[in-house]
Amino acid sequence: MQVALTKPIRPLPQAIQRLTDLAYNLWFSWNPDALKLFARIDAAKWEQSGHNPVRLLQELDDAQLEALSKETDFMNAYQQVIAAYDSYMSGTAWFQEKHADRSYVQIAYFSAEFGFHESLPIYSGGLGILAGDHCKSASDLGIPLIGIGLLYKKGYFTQKIDISGGQQAELLQYDFNKLPIKQVMKDSLPLLVTIDMPGRAISLQVWSVQVGRNTIYLLDADHDANNQADRELTAQLYGGNQDTRIAQEILLGIGGVKALRAIGYYPNVYHINEGHAAFLTLERLKELLHLGLPFHVAVETVRAATVFTTHTPVPAGHDTFSIGMVEHYLGPLLQDLSRHKQEIIALGLDYHSGQFNMTHLAMNTAGLRNGVSKLHGQVSREMFREFHGNIDAGEVPIDSITNGVHLDTWTAPEWKELLDRFLPGTWRQEQANKDQWQAVKVIPDDSIWKVHMQLKENMIRYARRNLAEQRRRNGESEERIEEVRHYLNPKALTIGFARRFATYKRANLIFNDLYRLKKLINDIDRPVQFIFAGKAHPADFPGQELIREIYRVSQKKEFLGKIVILENYDMNMARYLVQGVDVWLNNPRRPLEASGTSGQKAAMNGVLNFSVLDGWWEEGYNGSNGWAIGSVGTADWDLQEKENTGAIYKILEKEIIPLYYNQGELPHQWISRMKRSIESLSPVYNTHRMVQDYTELTYLPTADRARHFAGNGYEVATKVADYKRFISSNWYHVKIIGVDDRSAKISTSNPLVLNEQSTKEVTADVLFGPIWPPDTVVEIIYYEEHNGAWNQIVVPMKPAGEPADQTQKYKAAIPGHLVHGPHFSVRVRPVSSNFVHDFELPLVTSTLSWK
Ligand SMILES: *Cc1c(COP(=O)(O)O)cnc(C)c1O
């Protein structure tokens, strides 16, 4: 497919022509030398452009360009960057080496937001940044991935904080010709993808973003062929009402699949990054039904090729729509497939609420599903237990792949240079290998402290500029603006807190005892200061109230210049903060933070995490690489808040502050903790490790499964679908008609002693009706206490003798003290070697009476 510039950057002098290539590949955003090269062209314009190289190049005049091409230093730097770029683009990487036999794999990654760089504002927070980092590591590792998203004319929003701490959400209208994206053309005309919506069609233009070796396609409804209201559908990320939301999700999911086809892609893996994109499975179903596949076979085919990642346990994070709304907006598709309307609705129906739930749709149409940290996996398994027929939470088929961040994007160049000097030459490519990081220990303390202090000063200068700009715009006095120059003390222990202001993140927790806080902050010898930043969704009024509260506190005389709140948190600010503070604070209500990633960015920069044991930190914290707030126990939120608040002050007073200020020339103990943090966390919480996990645990098996299912005229898909249908409709015949554990032999050295070492044989008679016994397994289930938790033990039973009268006898040995009923139960469930996981059909027949 041809990709063209509608308004090309005018031709650059021959000698520097390839700056255009650099500007249109976001590879520049994670390469310090490329960034430096652009800054060097015109530092002021580079800043004004919001670090957008396309705008920068468009705004230079001929004389400036000519002069550049004659400047020797610049030309040397240019040559070096171009050489590095060419070598990156043409080289092979991990995937080609490790999985050379999998060249057929192609992954389509669907996400409502992507955070690649501040110059492309189509993200709101963690989910988008994660998607961006995912694509970057996929490129670095040579993983064949195509992204699909939406291009928002007005982005998310620009945040301003007014003089009373109110959040002003400002919407800018972006000129797509000035962003680092290109329009996709077909036969010299813009490619258009059309989607049938109730009473009309919507035409979507397609834009492409180059992210290293991979391309991300973004859909845009702002086209002349559409009515005004439809043109606005892709105006804003998470804007508008429920109607906007469902329409956007249709554009993303259904439009996304259509765009892939129009460009010529038929991927074998479809990754739904959060429920927003789940409609993609309906378009896939439609394609298969049009090929003539029966509905149940089409569903199996789709499931075989789909991976779903769920990102939050917060209910508001799971989109739901009324059935009426779904019937209206999906009208054309449902009409087209009218014979299957009820079955399609059922794929997303939440029987409890009667609503159509995008997470349910994704669960029902994705073979593999995962949460984003170990704890979140566990919480999701609990949440979806009932959805899977009330099996034990541990058996619910939702795994976890813990999030990470793109090391090259988030680690300061100064750190990378330092690591280059001490770590093995392969440390970047093999960053997920712990051995590569051992040498962090031998980096001299003074080198580490020098880098950290320099980054801290950069960050403080940045924060002061942000505050001065806030005040200038708010029409404050010259004196108030000047004052900011003395805000934030580079010598003071500096704690950062920046993230979306969603209420469960409890940004104001530290203010629960202002008196105690005041003492800490104003300690002459050992001062502490706080920097806050973050956006609240424009419809989230409690979130905006948090901003107002922090602002008010920051304006109190005793906190002026020691607690500050910066405006317009974005990726640029995030880099300054995660690289420049001493401590990164995170105190969400556990377990609502599915993973969190900003603390991972901080860790890579030697910033110490001080966090509730939630999300990734529950597994990242090892007792000496940061600090944990509170215990893991309580589900009572008031109690949790009290306990967490107390813990925060106590740990600050007793551990963090004394450690930081325990310094002669250098705070050696602090630095040694920084080293432990880098060494233990960097190799794990990076997206190279994460994307390698996705590849090996989900993408490769899914690609193979998709081919296996679709091959030979959908033979396996048909077999599996028919099998499931047969089993489901006949399962009611399956009954456990008797369990015998009394007459069984007790085998122990002394038959008079019934202890836990003794075993006994149990038999069970199962009536199968028309179901073939080998299509099932019969198991004994009991629970064993281990470290205060009850773990489920599963003992498979073996057939004993031949079946008679549709009944089969089974036997197994279990500990002798267990009695059927109070201690153990027997269950039967269907199995198939073609199931992707054991509980693919939520049919379990059990003797458990209290279920
Ligand atoms: C990393 C990042 C986030 C996500 O932070 P969490 O700690 O996971 O909430 C949000 N916004 C920006 C701009 C980021 O860089």
Automatic annotation (TrEMBL):
<comment type="similarity">
    <text>Belongs to the glycogen phosphorylase family.</text>
</comment>
<protein>
    <submittedName>
        <fullName>Alpha-glucan family phosphorylase</fullName>
    </submittedName>
</protein>
<dbReference type="InterPro" id="IPR011834">
    <property type="entry name" value="Agluc_phsphrylas"/>
</dbReference>
<dbReference type="Pfam" id="PF00343">
    <property type="entry name" value="Phosphorylase"/>
</dbReference>
<dbReference type="Pfam" id="PF11897">
    <property type="entry name" value="DUF3417"/>
</dbReference>
<feature type="domain" description="DUF3417">
    <location>
        <begin position="12"/>
        <end position="120"/>
    </location>
</feature>
<dbReference type="InterPro" id="IPR000811">
    <property type="entry name" value="Glyco_trans_35"/>
</dbReference>
<dbReference type="InterPro" id="IPR052182">
    <property type="entry name" value="Glycogen/Maltodextrin_Phosph"/>
</dbReference>
<dbReference type="InterPro" id="IPR024517">
    <property type="entry name" value="Glycogen_phosphorylase_DUF3417"/>
</dbReference>
<dbReference type="GO" id="GO:0030170">
    <property type="term" value="F:pyridoxal phosphate binding"/>
</dbReference>
<dbReference type="GO" id="GO:0008184">
    <property type="term" value="F:glycogen phosphorylase activity"/>
</dbReference>
<dbReference type="GO" id="GO:0005975">
    <property type="term" value="P:carbohydrate metabolic process"/>
</dbReference>
<keyword id="KW-0663">Pyridoxal phosphate</keyword>
<keyword id="KW-0021">Allosteric enzyme</keyword>
<feature type="modified residue" description="N6-(pyridoxal phosphate)lysine">
    <location>
        <position position="601"/>
    </location>
</feature>
